[in-house]
Design a protein that fits this description.
The protein is built from 2 helices and no strands. It is mainly alpha-helical.
């Protein structure tokens, strides 16, 4: 159970960092494709977190 909590915390931290990176990329007017790439990476982490949550609650 501790490993799952650590994994969840790690993913949540990565999500927050990517959200910040995406926000700053948008604010700085970086190319649209760059913002979309960050968004896709963020979606992947959010899906990973959801899957972890689902797996944890299934037990």
């Amino acid at each position: 159970m501790i490993k799952i909590v650590k994994t969840r915390q790690t993913i949540e931290l990565q999500i927050e960092r990517l959200r910040s990176r995406m926000y700053h990329a948008f604010e700085k007017g970086e190319h649209y494709d760059q913002v979309v790439a960050i968004s896709k990476e963020l979606d992947g982490l959010l899906n990973k977190l959801e899957n972890l949550h689902t797996k944890t609650n299934a037990k």
